[in-house]
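Suppose you are handed a protein chain with no further information: no name, no annotation, nothing but its sequence. What can you learn? This example shows the usual starting point.
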Amino acid sequence: MTSALLPTYARAPIAFERGEGAWLVTHDGERYLDFGAGIAVNALGHAHPHLVEALTTQAQKLWHTSNLFEIPEGERLGRRLVDATFADVAFFANSGAEANEAAIKMARKYHAAGGHPERFRIITFEGAFHGRTLATIAAGGQQKYIDGFGPKVDGFDQVPFGDHDALVAAIGPETAALMIEPIQGEGGIRTVPTEMLRGLRALCDEHGLLLIMDEVQTGVGRTGRLFAHEWAGVTPDIMSAAKGIGGGFPLGVCLATAEAARGMTAGSHGTTFGGNPLAMAVGNAVLDVVLADGFLDHVLRMGLLLKQRLGAVIDRHPGVITEIRGTGLILGLKLDVPNTAFTAAARDERLLVIPAGDNVVRLLPPLIVSEADVAEAVERLDATAGRLGSQMRGAAE
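A reasonable first move is to predict its three-dimensional structure. Written in structure tokens, the prediction is:
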């Protein structure tokens, strides 16, 4: 039977019935090791008991009231995020794209509130991905996402990744902010060097710009710090987060300093579903786990272990995998074979990985992944690379 769904996804012919920890199980009982985590969303794996309890308990009490009324669990989650970060205020949304829309609007409104409405342009970086709305595809600048949707939304100037001179040249009297991912996820796990992030902060201070960090994919512990920018010792003015913060429940947040948010007064922005009691209950449950003593140390240990063992896989299959990128549990394998072929071959080994730009596959396991899970994943990656290497040798002969 033909699907009734809009055909905007090239879905793999697999359906999962249930999951536990880092594993997913199909309707016919086949087990897959999940090193994609729903594209970095299932930060605590599948069916985490603390998240299940938080959601079911809240679901029995109250689902939705709207933001016309106070939502105590939202107040609590906002306070916890503010206390754990640079921020003074939080705005809850349903997704990373919505969090980035809030960040973009906030940066523009900041300058308008300061008497400079002409400062609305935001500089972004080649290879970026900030979402799928009309504004965020313009911010990302990738033509494949822009084509066919009419004129590109104005207000975004993109510069080559790592080109400081081009960045300086792009700053003008209409520039409001710089927007960057500390590690480009969709762009191929490209880590922004510490000196570059510090240079961006200095440029913003020099020119009166706001620095926006998009931590939708890198945030909430994925790199071994609560947020990836902390590694550089750089403080943004505005930051978006999503994916892992809801552990699988749709949740995004825009965090900001009070100064950066000065223009966001009553009625200037809003959401119907954002910050609803269900999402807030789950978000608080995620923080209970991620902020617990030793949790981020575990992420660092597992990330280091995975990276070390992948080095041996590269040594055995240099014609297939050429480089390991990333930190913590956001890692990328740069390939000499098509990443789509690698993803499919890994799936045949019952391992789920995620393709990205620059011919990379992403390894984004749940943050609760165990040493045994890491060992199993490396074994399956080795088998995947071996299979593709054999195919390459056969084709050459």
